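Batch job 17 of 40 flagged for manual review because the log was empty.
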Amino acid sequence: MTSGSIVQRSRNTAINASSGSRKKHNRLSTEASLHATRFSLTNNALSITLPIPPSINRQYATVNGRRVLSATGRRYKGTIGQLLMIAGSSSKWHAFLRKTQEHFLSLTIHFYFPTLLRRDLDGGLKIAQDALCEAMSLNDNRILEIHLYKTLDRDNPRLECTLALTSPLSPGIRKFSRRSNRSFAAPLRETQSRNRPR
């Protein structure tokens, strides 16, 4: 399959995620999804622009008395996974992924909202962090620092995040972390293989 068709499938996923929500609710913006193309990589940090997450009320549903991720939340995480799969395909990207397995991490997120008063600053943190880490097969327990900001941008709502390496893991923690990441990543890889565009 060509990269162009993969991009088209990703855009279709974003469009479906957007059209599946009611108009009166905050939706995963198709426009924002298509703008999720800024992808910058250095030896020590990944910076990427992503769609704004759904509001906290749309992220979860109650099923049989249990609080679970909603269909809207699952679509959002799937979209992030596809965008990263498209963006991250170089040898430099794979080298960075290897480094993330050997370091503690910091996460900086700038939310650009169409209005500043309808969304709490931390309402989109968990789903954005989970989506990013799952797409990279990372256990987010190694994120030691989180920096959150929100800014007004009516014309181009988006999320800009930077995941950076901090201190290296000690040998003992690294050994435990490898076991932890394997158990964390195995079901994720199985899910990704089922959802990968064909």
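Reviewer: the log was empty due to a logging misconfiguration, but the result itself is present. DSSP finds seven helices and seven strands in the chain. Unflagging and moving on to job 18.
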